[in-house]
Specification:
Blueprint (H helix, E strand, L loop, with lengths): L1 E2 H12 L13 E4 L4 E2 L1 E7 L2 H9 L4 E7 L11 H12 L3 E4 L2 H5 L5 H8 L3 E6 L3 E5 L4 H12 L4 E3 L8 E4 L8 H6 L4 E4 L4 H10 L2 E4 L8 H14 L3 E3 L7
Parallel strand pairs: 4-5, 4-13, 5-6, 10-11, 11-12
Antiparallel strand pairs: 1-3, 2-6, 7-8, 8-10, 9-12
């Protein structure tokens, strides 16, 4: 077993949690503590009830690392489903650690850099604060197929830009509303998870390709990489709890 406090301190240091501004509901860091010992590290994208049930079934003493934590709705009464989640974690002696933008932005285990590398982009550089951009050698269909292979789902493609993309920007999750900023930053193709309806219309007007790979599907890589690294350092097993959201 490993000490929870040691794992959390290492994760906060490595991800620079206190240095990166995030949405108020993110509450990056330890959201629920357990008795202080960790037998295994679990990784998941969302702290939803089905995921917490699966995590609890893995046995007592787990540390669950998620990208989307418990408090996106802000302050709420401890009733109903919220109470049920907390009670499941208490009974399973489970700790919960959530990390949002610090994980997206990280240069090694971040969602954006891992997806960009998996797509074969070269010469990666920071893109719009916490994304990554690079060059691609191939057609838009080639790139779309790679997105589908990595995310294990068929992406939606707004083919309003060049048939052979040159500069590609990647921001995972729900960054489709950043299409104007992406175009202004000089990319001809923007890869993200999801976006509002108008983002497709605006992409056509701007003459830029947008590949929507799915919010959940584009954000599975970071939590897995982080969990694997922490598990190796603290010599505990780890596994990924896959609970896809098809949006």
């Amino acid at each position: 077993m490993a000490k929870l406090s040691a794992i959390i301190a290492e994760a906060n240091r490595y991800l620079k949690v206190t240095e990166i501004e995030d949405y108020p509901g993110a509450h990056n860091g330890l959201q629920v503590e357990n008795g202080g010992s960790v037998k295994r590290v679990l990784a998941a994208v969302d702290a939803g009830l089905p995921v917490i049930k699966k995590a609890a079934a893995s046995g007592s003493g787990s540390l669950l690392i998620v990208h989307h934590g418990l408090f996106w709705s802000g302050v709420q009464p401890v009733t109903g489903i919220f109470r049920e989640k907390l009670e499941l974690m208490r009974k399973a002696d489970m700790a919960l650690y959530s990390v949002h933008l610090p994980l997206d932005a990280h240069a090694v285990v971040g969602n954006n850099v891992l997806l960009a590398k998996a797509l074969g982009l070269r010469g990666l550089k920071p893109f719009l604060d916490f994304g990554r951009a690079g060059t691609f050698n191939g057609t838009l269909k080639d790139l779309s197929r790679r997105v589908g292979k990595v995310t294990e789902r068929e992406p939606q493609v707004c083919a309003a830009g060049p048939a052979r993309p040159r500069k590609v920007g990647v921001i995972t999750g729900g960054a489709g509303d950043m299409v104007e900023k992406a175009a202004a930053a000089g990319v001809d193709t923007f890869v993200t998870g999801e976006g509002p309806q108008w983002s497709w219309v605006r992409a056509e007007e701007l003459g830029i390709n947008v590949i929507y790979g799915g919010h959940y599907a584009t954000e599975t890589l970071g939590v897995q990489a982080l969990a694997a690294q922490l598990a190796k350092k603290f010599r505990v097993p780890w596994k990924f709890i896959d609970h896809p959201v098809p949006l």
